[in-house]
Amino acid sequence: MSRALALKPGTGTALVRHIILFIVAAITLVPVIWVAAAGFRTQISLLIGEFLFTPVMTNFTEVLFSKTSDFLLNYRNSLIVGIASTILCVGTATLAAWSLNRMDWPKWVVHVFLAWALVFHMIPSIALAGAWFGMMRTIGLDNSFLGLILAHAVLNLPMALWLMAVFVRDVPVELVEAARIDGAGTPTILGQVVLPIIAPGLAATSVLTFLFSWNEFAVALTLTMKQTATVPVAIAKFAQDYEIQYTQMAASAALSILPALVLLLVAQRFIVKGLTNGAVK
Questions:
Q1: Residues 81, 32: one domain?
Q2: Transmembrane stretches, by residue range (predicted)?
Q3: What is the dihedral of CA 57, 69, 239, 77, to 10 degrees?
Q4: pLDDT tens profile 223-266
Q5: pTM for the predicted model, two decimal places
């Protein structure tokens, strides 16, 4: 009887692991659920701290369809900037990774270049915003999509370069050499040999780059105005001088999660496969 009730070897460890994972998941999800729930409250209900409340759709209606709200325009702006900067950033990072790993650069050049990319990535974006504003204003790209797209591409390029360098480096040299023997040029090799192999890594890098661009605030606030403002900038404007519209801010924040959620659900398999392959190799 005692043997029947005894735990199997490793059961206790598995139980502890699941408890830890549950706690971590709760720490991550509870704030998100609280913000999403706040979007269905009235301002008074939120401020007095009611635990049980009657859900309302007023905040979402106000955010999406009010004549004074530009949130749909901001949503469109974020999609334009996020998609365009991701294409530009990941494309440049892939070509740079190919150059660093497959061309005859001295080793010290490669190490210095990657080290500089890492140092640049550690610089806070707010430290660059002022200089970029002056530069964009001088060349006429302030308050424009192109200026913000270029800024976001530069901000995310170091991360994309480091990730793509790992995936490109692990492409078998024999495949590339066989393609060259068959007469394929570099564009053909990249398009028909390399890209299919690094597709999971490319998907993972693209998703991460888009999410970083979508959530970026400091540079977007500096380089945009009403017509080109992105979602993070729009959410911040709910905090005014004499009033903070908490529930409308929460509704906007809940809506801003949707693209990231859709991307993660659609590309989850590629993200896990890409990042796992990069880590293992």
A1: no
A2: 15-37, 44-66, 78-100, 112-133, 145-168, 189-214, 246-267
A3: 110
A4: 998 889 999 999 998 887 678 888 999 999 999 998 888 887 87
A5: 0.85
